[in-house]
Amino acid sequence: KKLIIINGPNLNLLGTREPDVYGSLTLVDFLETIKAKYSKIKIDHFQSNIEGELISKIQEVGFSYDGIILNAAAYTHTSVGIGDAVRAITTPVVEVHISNTFAREDFRHHSFIAPNAKGVIVGFGLQSYELAIQSFLNE
Ligand code: DQA
Question: For the whole model, what pTM was predicted?
Answer without folding.
Answer: 0.96
